[in-house]
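TA notes, week 10

Several of you asked for a full example with nothing omitted. So below is the full record: structure tokens for the whole chain, then the designed sequence directly under it. When grading your own attempts, check the secondary structure regions first.
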């Protein structure tokens, strides 16, 4: 049995409207049972009055009594679901209020506060339930990481416990500080993209056209990195045809050979095109190596700065002929997930889908972007996201799928086995096979891309220039 968990957001397991819809149906069912009990009582009374007998009145009263008892259960369950929906909505409202306050929008903050007051008045236990949900969500990752570190270092005398405690404290600090929550494009000094999307205002910042800096009107001046990157087309991997699922997409992420970015152009029926972009993770441990997909780029992106690897992705898109405004679906693993998130936040391309595997960040993408994050709770790199955002981010149907990749734990965890794209492909296959309704939007995506008349594939290697 799989331990896969699919949630609408970090601390939110389901969509609040879905919860309320189920509660409404349960209440309707309870009402119907009550009506049946009333009819059974009427039959009993009529039978008793007319002496039609033969025990009909007793049986009818027995049915009426049983229906009344059963009718109480849907009503109680509906009330519990409404309370749960209120708790989840309260989590979302707290985040929205904090964003409105930070943006100086006092009117919006007051409106949100009024809604929160109504929720807490109608559901007195909602605040406590919201606090518990967030606490449990924040604690799951650090606890699992501590357990994994202890299992991996048991053979080191006197070190297993201190290392486990240190790991738990470290990842707890990341979660509490919110270091892994990306709210604006790397290098941007404008307001968080999610806030701009919520208010309908454009985000001041920068646009990017194929690795070359293009200031957006009204945005701050920025500088090109001193060592511009270079990309060149290489022979693509053998896999071809339209992408068919999350697991198939994971297998298309480059990095095993010299390619770093894979661009698929889909010629759609009736004209127009869409693009699918797959971005590799970190390839060089050293900082500032010839490969822009190195640790230096990793740290720059995590700190919210631009990187040579981001320049490489933009240049590859330009070389592949992907035009600004063209529908794009981005897939990335590890550092590639940060790069994919940056593309989704920039706004240069019409990024409609963001799929990340083992991302150290979670991007607060606009409401028009379907966001799907695949994570392992025993992956230290994914742990840097600190669980991501407590609320749902992205378009309706966005979700986070999470599991423990290696429940046993051991020395193999020191090699970051849970972070490998192969393990993420296994988890992605579980999501593909899931009956969870949130996977429906993804099935629509595979169907749309599968209808393409032609798929053109180009893969690109990347290197840092000499300056």
């Amino acid at each position: 049995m799989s331990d896969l968990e699919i949630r609408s957001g970090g601390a939110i397991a389901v969509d609040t409207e879905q919860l309320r819809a189920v509660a409404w149906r349960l209440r309707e069912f309870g009402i119907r049972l009550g009506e049946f009990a009333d009819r059974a009582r009427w039959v009993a009374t009529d039978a008793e009055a007319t002496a039609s007998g033969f025990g009909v009145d007793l049986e009818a009263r027995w049915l009426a009594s049983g229906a009344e008892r059963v009718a109480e259960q849907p009503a109680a369950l509906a009330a519990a679901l409404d309370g749960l929906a209120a708790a989840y909505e309260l989590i979302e409202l707290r985040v929205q209020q904090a964003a409105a306050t930070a943006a100086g929008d006092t009117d919006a903050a007051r409106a949100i506060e009024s809604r929160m007051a109504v929720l807490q008045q109608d559901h007195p236990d909602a605040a406590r339930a919201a606090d518990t949900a967030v606490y449990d969500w924040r604690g799951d990752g650090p606890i699992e990481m501590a357990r994994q570190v202890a299992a991996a270092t048991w053979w080191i005398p006197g070190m297993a416990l201190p290392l486990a405690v240190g790991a738990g404290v470290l990842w707890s600090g990341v979660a509490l500080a919110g270091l892994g929550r990306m709210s604006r494009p790397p290098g941007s000094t404008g307001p968080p993209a999610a806030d701009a999307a919520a208010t309908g205002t454009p985000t001041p910042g920068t646009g990017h056209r194929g690795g070359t800096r293009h200031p957006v009107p009204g945005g701050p001046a920025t500088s090109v990195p001193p060592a511009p990157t270079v990309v060149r087309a290489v022979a693509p991997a053998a896999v071809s045809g339209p992408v068919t699922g999350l697991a198939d997409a994971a297998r298309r992420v480059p990095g095993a050979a010299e390619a770093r970015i894979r661009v698929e152009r889909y010629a759609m029926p009736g004209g127009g095109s869409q693009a699918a972009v797959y971005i590799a993770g970190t390839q060089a441990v050293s900082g500032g190596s010839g490969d822009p997909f190195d640790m230096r780029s990793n740290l720059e992106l995590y700190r919210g700065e631009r990187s040579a690897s981001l320049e490489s992705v933009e240049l590859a898109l330009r070389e592949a002929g992907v035009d600004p405004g063209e529908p794009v679906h981005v897939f990335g693993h590890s550092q590639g997930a940060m790069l994919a998130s940056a593309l989704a936040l920039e706004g240069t391309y019409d990024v409609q889908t963001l799929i990340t595997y083992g991302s150290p960040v979670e991007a607060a993408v606009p409401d028009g972007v379907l966001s799907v994050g695949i994570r392992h709770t025993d992956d230290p790199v994914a742990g840097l996201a600190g669980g991501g955002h407590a609320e749902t981010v992205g378009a309706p149907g966005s979700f986070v799928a999470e599991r423990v990749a290696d429940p046993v734990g051991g020395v193999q965890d020191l090699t970051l086995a849970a972070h490998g794209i192969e393990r993420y492909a296994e988890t992605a296959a579980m999501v593909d096979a899931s009956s969870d309704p949130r996977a429906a939007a993804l099935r629509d995506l595979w169907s749309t891309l599968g209808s393409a008349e032609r798929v053109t594939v180009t893969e690109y290697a990347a290197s840092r220039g000499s300056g």
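The radius of gyration is 26 Å. Use that as a sanity check on your answer.
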